[in-house]
Design a protein that fits this description.
With 318 residues, the protein is an all-alpha fold. It contains 14 helices and no strands.
Amino acid sequence: MVTGREDTDAREREEAALAAFVAARPELAVTPGLGRALASVVVAAAAAWPGVSLTAARFVAALAPRLAADRPVEAALAELCTGDMYLACACVDGDPRALAQFDRLLVPIVERAASRRGATPSQQNDLQQIVRERLLMPRPSAPEEAHARLAEYSGRGSLRAWIRVVATRETLRLLARPQREVSGDEEAMAALMPADAGPEVEHLKQHYREAFKEAFREAVAGLSDRERVLLRQHALDGLSIDRLADFYKVHRSTTARWVEGARRAVLEKTRRALGRRLHVPAAELDSIMRLIDSRLDITLPTLLREPGAAPSPSSKKG
């Protein structure tokens, strides 16, 4: 049974969707029932991505310019992959849950595109980051087009197919360059424990190397979804606090707090994981953690690239 409140909400959605459509495409005829048709598309698209936040007006404003002018609006709507467009639009707006869902699409697509052309596991990990950056990060070299490339997705084919084209092109480009294959484990340990760091570090390297690897993997895998997304963007993709603030539409102090909280979470989880593996006095564990803390920012990019170190992110603003 439809309640009065539900009926009012439905009318408000229809009115908001229709107003956004008219503002975006004033030249197109408004037919009876258009508001209801637009609202229905919004509801169906939102249902495809539970938890992703996008207003009806924002979605319709992005949808309207992509509709063919020579077709009835309802028919033009039916030709678009509106569910995929909803996700893309929310990603462009920086919604963390949308970004997490996008990552779940991207990773297997890139892996397949890269493995078909003989890319190594390390190259596949690099490609995932390259494709993320190509699609999600604004292009600072083109300030007049300071939007993520994902904003250009037209919805006339599936989002998976669109990502696959980018992944294939970037795979071919990467494989055309000379590569230096280094295991992620060894790269992370080299960053944490450089060869010239002295006898204390050499002692840790000799006795606790495997424990470090396992503890780091466990720590990164145990991060919350938003923590993992933020650390990837900041440590791996190189986004500054200011760019993250602009991306998430929050004050820079908020993103600074988020990033520092994620960094501390890695340290706390690493300490707990090491404590379970190393039977050493608390003072020695404190000494180990001081070393990790001092070099974590160098080590994080490699840790976040590790295959299997963390599940695909799914985050939430807060």
